[in-house]
Amino acid sequence: MPEPRTERDALGELPVTADALYGIYTARALENFPLTRRPVHAALIHAYGAVKLACARANRESCGGDDARTAALPSSPPREGCAVTAAAKAEAIERACREMIEGRLDEHVVVDALQGGAGTSTNMNVNEVLANRALQLLGRPLGDYQTVSPLDDINRHQSTNDTYPTALRVAAITLLRKLEREVVALQEAFQQKEKQFAHVVKVGRTQLQDAVLTTLGREMGAYAEALNRDRWRIYKCEERLRVVNLGGTAIGTGLGAPRQYIFRVVEHLREITGLGLARAENLVEATQNADVFVEVSGILKACASNLLKIAGDLRLMASGPQAGLGEIRLPARQAGSSIMPGKVNPVIPEAVSQTALAVMAHDHAITAAGALGNLELNAFLPLVADALLTSLELLGNACAIFRRLCVEGLEADEARCGAHVESSTATATALVGRLGYETAQEVARAAHDEHKSIREVVLARRLLTEAEYAELIAPEAVMRLGSGTPGARPEAK
Asked: Which among 58, 71, 32 has a CA at the least distance from the CA of 163?
């Protein structure tokens, strides 16, 4: 095994694994933050690659005009004997950035997801990896920072305080778009079930008690509509994330960065990502405040709330199945018990419910972290980033498995729904328009006391004919908006 290389910083020397693309700053971060034992989210790494590529291109222009491949990216003078040209170095840096965007350098960004320093450890890990990868491409030894420097080249005219939140916004937008697609797909799955079950009359319940008749299709349509609102909220909240503070450097004043660079860097990032990004008009404000992330997280919490409610409803309607409601059948995904033969649990709705609860917990953390910023900077963005990106990924995955492994295969137990309709006093409500409240109430009481169905009592007392009764509880009558005699024409005005 090759000997570790020795790197130096302001605190002294430290050995670094010989073939590691990271450097001394990352090595110190690994010692300091053994917290979650998992790295930062991959979407943040890829977005950081895009940010660094935009910065490299803006630096090239501001230092040498538009002749992109011949302009230098200034750094410390290359050590003696180095034949690397400015153009070759610029190309190597850009290629390394593109590899990071593509996910080819993920394994080298190793700092913990939670860290002190407002994300500086992540920024420096990225800087070191890009510098060392560029050195590899140039045929130079790792750690030869006189040729390509993590700070003077990769981090030129930047700060963690503008690159980290910008990368977080880019990553969040990317995952938001994936989530939107999954929410739309889940919405459409429920819309299909709305059509499929439009004819299935069932007992509607309020406060878990029998109330009135409805259709299973109408219930599925309500879920679809709730998801439609989620889809719209997710689509709209992208606007909040498009405003970035890149170019503001330390606190939003652009300290140390040329004006040409500040004006061009976001344009480059927009071209690289294809996202409608814009530089914040007030870079100082955009650097110190994190309320945008809190707002987006709140929208994710609303989506989680809907998923939790829908998943709970499906579990309840599928309960039993023999001794519960048993109105629907969920796809059997796995054996439910090691001791109870034949038991099959609603594992997909259960998993979706747990995901929703996790997203709600993340929202609380994001809210608290957003409020804890001080003066010109929020030091707790690593927590915000980890919680927000994890929530986005969790929700997207949950919607996908909910649709594919549960909703699409969901079936109605029409016989069970019909039996409930026959046995429930809720059916009496459908007769109020024809019989009046007092008579319908007497029918419901008699059915309960005599252990008969509403149908049996009504027909026995000759209050309605079989055809009239069937018409009142038919899907068309149940679905009709408002009351009135079935088949009657509205009065002319």
From this structure: 58
